[in-house]
Design goal:
Layout (H helix, E strand, L loop, with lengths): L1 H9 L4 H4 L10 H8 L2 H4 L1 H10 L2 E6 L5 H11 L12 E6 L2 H15 L5 E5 L2 E2 L7 E5 H10 L6 E6 L7 H18 L3 H6 L4 E6 L5 H4 L11 E4 L6 E5 L8 H15 L4 E5 L3 H14 L9 H21 L3 H6 L47 E6 L5 H5 L10 E6 L2 H4 L6 E6 L2 E8 L4 E8 L2 H9 L7 E5 L3 H7 L14 H9 L16 H13 L12 H7 L5 H9 L6 H13 L9 H15 L3 H11 L2 H7 L6 H9 L7 H14 L4 H7 L3 H21 L16 H14 L4 E4 H5 L16 E3 L6 E3 L13 E3 L2 E4 L3 E4 L2 E3 L1 H7 L4 E3 L7 H4 L2 H7 L4 E3 L4 E2 L5
Helix pairs in contact: 6-7, 8-9, 12-13, 13-14, 20-21, 20-22, 22-23, 23-24, 23-32, 24-29, 24-31, 25-26, 28-29
This protein binds adenosine-5'-diphosphate and magnesium ion.
Magnesium ion binds next to helix 6.
Length: 859
């Protein structure tokens, strides 16, 4: 063995060097037995052989075949990451979702029967230590590491998981890694002593990998594709005869009830689109099919009820945070794999809504069965706390049927054991961007055919299964796209471009993206970064400011606010603001949503908008009591002090957000504060956590900065409030809106508007009228000429949210790169002033933005 180690130490990764090196693992017998049944384990030899002989290997295997849990273990056992082996670097595994990174690390650790050798790292949280051998992480984490170490010298092998999802980060990673591979293979002789070649494994749940194999700019030689054949039992597909007009959640509820009452045992997996729907459906199902034995004492019943209520209350409260949800919104892009499996009846439609439409030979329902048998209902979505997520892997209590209500996190990332019935609403919620304007909306839409098939496949893991599609086959045929569009073609990419720039990828336009984004998007992202001062105008290279910005794991404009936030003691406030903006609005309901709802519902009827929206509107209308209650926040002492400084006129929604954070801390960060003021406790906690982490990051990243978290954050002073608004303006410099009448009159203030209600504004990159959202504090204020906004949101109109009043004269300074200055005013000004002043006076009448909006004179 000693001889062998000697040889390994010097050698390259050739077949002979690897073969005899095995790390022994003491798995528990039941674990060992279970993993041997996984299809991937049957291919261990083939997989390891391919990895030894190729720098890049692609593994395709149906969800649940064991890719994520087993392949890292193969590598571990083959000596990768072992300190004595030829390749002592870490085994890195990337996941698109935090949920998966955390749960898979714990699963693999459990299977290997080790304590600290398997770790995870997600944004702001890690378990890595010097003993780490296998590291699960989100792809964002690895992208950030690239900025510090482009050769990824820490790693001997990288597994890029869930590549079929075609997430933005995954795509970028694969592009960058194709370059890293070349560099690691062509090191100087000296470096080769220290840095070993890198192996890359790309894993996909579908066979659609041609973007990786056939793309010549990625890999010189097409990497081998190993197809793992999973045992898949036939799944019968049952389409609804009609697609429900109104409410697919209700339709799902009915279908689940029927399955549960009439069909033989087996878990039910339901696909909906988001947290709110899931929580509502779970609640309804739990009420209808409670898990408690009938003879339970009254006290037990009360206890159970209370605990369910507490759970759903908090969940409902946190459900409002679309931003956070969106950050981890699951994208369904996948799967033509299912064509390998037999799908009987796939074109048949359910004849009547009352029929479940099948009974297989072994499937004769047991008429004797208690029709109200308990149902063990569990939610599954990205924001669910990890321990609650892990409950889906446990066996349901004796005598109950498992029913999981999930987003499409259950589509490929997580495999739930024992599922026999799938109920598929056929919808997916995605953050959509209008690339021209950056306008963002959350759209619930039909998912793709590929992802619907992937969902159906979940029913056939343990035996023949059934998939109930809550839509007709006609809708499926005509409205479902074959595949969903890769994320890179759907979103603004400043953050990614900045990270890429900080990795010295200057020419993003020629970057080997698996699917290159349209050039205009790349150019626009570069433009925004230029305005923020993150890249220089001519060379498009990252600036010092940009480099500092890139060290913060937040979007570039927030990073800029942090960096310039160190003025007049504003940094703690800026940190609080950025944390709150990153987490999203913690307020349960914004005031005046009722107005909005009324306005919107008119146009909704015209456009026949989705049922989801109608449901939401319904909920909104029923919340006026909550609305009144929530105004309590303004009675907080913190609020009052702050308002006094602000001269009693609110000037910014973002400052209001700061107030909420401040008032929460001031009140001792209690749950009761959240309840009394209708803010989401989970969001407030997350903001708090982020504040602490950002504070540490600022201290670590910026020399000489002394900032600490003030547990009782004092309200900002009058001066600080003004500076904060300027900092916000600087961050949102590409998101300035101007009153339309002001532009049209060529810069005269014209009439005064008592409120911003119905006053049209214009933003820089579009010719559409936009309006300040009714939830804004500026809604009832005189309409300012200039505002900076955090987001544009399209519903019946285009709304500006997170609005801050901007003094026009600030723009000439803060937005210098966006100003065009007229000719120097030589006469008569020059006549009366010395030369120096003339030059200064040439700044007098700048115009602002690409359209040359007038700016008032600057002294
Ligand atoms: P793939 O990555 O190919 O989709 P996985 O490696 O995630 O497959 O899963 C392999 C098997 O391990 C599945 O059958 C799944 O049910 C099981 N499994 C995964 N995580 C857990 C867990 N936390 N508890 C119990 N079983 C699990
Ligand atoms: Mg997996």
């Amino acid at each position: 063995k000693k001889l062998l180690l000697e040889r390994n130490r010097g050698g390259d990764l050739s077949h002979d060097d690897y073969k005899p090196f095995y790390v022994s693992v003491k798995r528990k017998p039941e674990i060992q037995a279970a993993r041997l049944k996984l299809p991937v384990c049957g291919e261990e030899q083939v997989i390891m052989e391919a990895i030894r002989n190729n720098t890049v290997v692609i593994i395709c295997g149906e969800t649940g075949s064991g890719k994520t849990t087993q392949v890292p273990q193969f590598l571990y056992e083959a000596g990768f990451s072992h300190p004595d082996s030829v390749n002592p670097g870490l085994i890195g595994v990337t996941q698109p979702r935090r949920v998966a990174a955390v749960s898979m690390a714990s699963r693999v650790s459990h299977e290997l029967n080790v304590t600290d050798e398997v770790s995870y790292q997600i944004r702001y949280d890690t378990t890595t230590s010097k003993n780490t051998r296998i590291k699960f992480m989100t792809d964002g984490v690895l992208l950030r590491e690239l900025a510090a170490d482009f050769l990824l010298t820490k790693y001997s092998v990288l597994i890029i998981d869930e590549a079929h999802e075609r997430n933005l980060n995954t795509d970028i990673l694969i592009g960058v890694i194709s370059r890293v591979l070349k560099l690691r293979a062509n090191l100087s002789k000296q470096d080769r002593e220290k840095i070993k070649p890198l192996r890359v494994v790309i894993m996909s749940a579908t066979l659609r990998v041609t973007d990786f194999t056939q793309n010549k700019s990625l890999f010189d030689n097409p990497p081998p594709v190993i197809k793992v054949d999973a045992r898949q039992y036939p799944v019968s597909i049952h389409f609804n005869k009609r697609t429900p007009e109104v409410d697919y959640v209700d339709e799902a509820y009915k279908k689940i009830g029927k399955i549960h009452k009439r069909l033989p045992p087996g878990g039910i997996l339901v696909f909906l689109t988001g947290q709110q729907e899931i929580v509502n459906l779970c609640k309804k199902l739990r009420q209808r099919f409670p898990t408690l034995p009938k003879r339970a004492s009254k006290i037990d019943v009360a206890k159970e009820k209370a605990s369910i209520e507490a759970e759903s209350r908090i969940e409902t409260v946190s459900a409002r945070n679309e931003d956070v949800e969106a950050e981890e919104i699951e994208l369904g892009d996948s799967a033509d794999q299912i064509e390998d499996f037999e799908l009987p009846d796939s074109d048949e439609e359910d004849d009547s809504d009352d029929e479940l439409g099948f009974y297989g030979e072994d499937d004769v329902p047991n008429e004797e069965e208690d029709t109200d048998a308990p149902l063990h209902v569990l939610p599954l979505y990205s924001l669910l706390p990890t321990d609650a997520q892990m409950r889906v892997f446990e066996d349901p209590p004796e005598g109950t049927r498992l029913c999981i209500v999930a987003t499409n996190v259950a589509e490929t990332s997580v495999t739930i054991p024992g599922i026999r019935y799938v109920v598929d609403a056929g919808k997916v919620k995605e953050r959509q961007y209008n690339l021209g304007t950056g306008i963002q909306s959350f759209d619930v839409d039909w998912t793709s055919k590929a992802s619907a098939d992937q969902r159906a496949g979940r029913a056939g893991r343990t035996g023949p299964g059934h998939c109930y599609r809550l839509y007709s086959s006609a809708v499926f045929d005509n409205y479902f796209p074959q595949f969903s569009v890769p994320e890179i073609n759907r979103m603004p990419i400043e953050g990614v471009i900045l990270s890429m720039k900080s990795m010295y990828i200057d020419n993003v336009v020629n970057f080997p993206f698996p699917t290159p984004p349209p050039k205009p998007n790349l150019i626009k992202a570069e433009k925004i970064l230029t305005h923020l001062g993150a890249i220089d105008r001519d060379q498009k290279r990252i600036t010092d400011l940009g480099r500092s910005m890139a060290t913060f794991p937040i979007i570039p404009k927030f990073a800029k606010m942090l960096i310039i936030g160190q003025q007049h003691g504003c940094l703690p406030f800026v940190i609080a603001i950025v944390s709150a903006l990153s987490v999203g609005d913690p307020v349960l309901r914004d005031s005046d949503l009722n107005d909005l709802a009324d306005e919107e519902s008119d146009s909704d009827d015209e456009n026949g908008t989705t049922d989801v929206k109608k449901m939401e509107l319904h909920n909104i209308r029923n919340e006026s009591v909550a609305e009144k209650e929530r105004r309590k926040l303004t009675r907080s002492k913190y609020y009052q002090t702050q308002m006094k400084h602000a001269g009693l006129d609110p000037t910014s929604d973002i400052i209001k957000l700061l107030n909420i954070v401040g008032a929460y801390e001031y009140a001792g960060a209690t749950q009761s504060f959240c309840e009394a003021n209708f803010v989401r406790p989970k969001a407030m906690e997350e903001i708090r956590k982020l504040r602490r982490q950002l504070t540490n990051l600022v201290v670590a990243n910026c020399d000489g900065v002394d900032v600490s978290i003030d547990p009782k954050m004092q309200p900002p002073s009058t001066l600080q409030l003004k500076v904060l608004r300027q900092i916000l303006t600087a961050g949102f410099i590409d998101s300035i809106a101007v009153r339309k009448d002001y532009i049209e009159s060529g810069g005269s203030e014209g009439s005064k508007f008592k409120s911003t209600r119905g006053v049209p504004y214009r933003v820089m990159w579009s010719d559409e009228d936009v309006f300040i959202h009714p939830s804004s504090v500026l809604y009832h204020q005189p309409a300012p000429l200039f505002v900076a906004y955090n987001e544009q949101f399209k519903s019946s109109k285009v709304w500006l949210k997170g609005v801050t009043k901007v003094e026009p004269k600030w723009l000439a300074k803060i937005g210098k790169s966006m100003c065009t200055y007229g000719k120097p005013l030589e006469f008569p000004v020059a006549k009366f002033m010395n030369e120096k002043k003339t030059v200064k006076k040439s700044w007098v009448v700048p115009s602002f933005g690409p359209k040359g909006w007038p700016l008032p004179p600057v002294e």
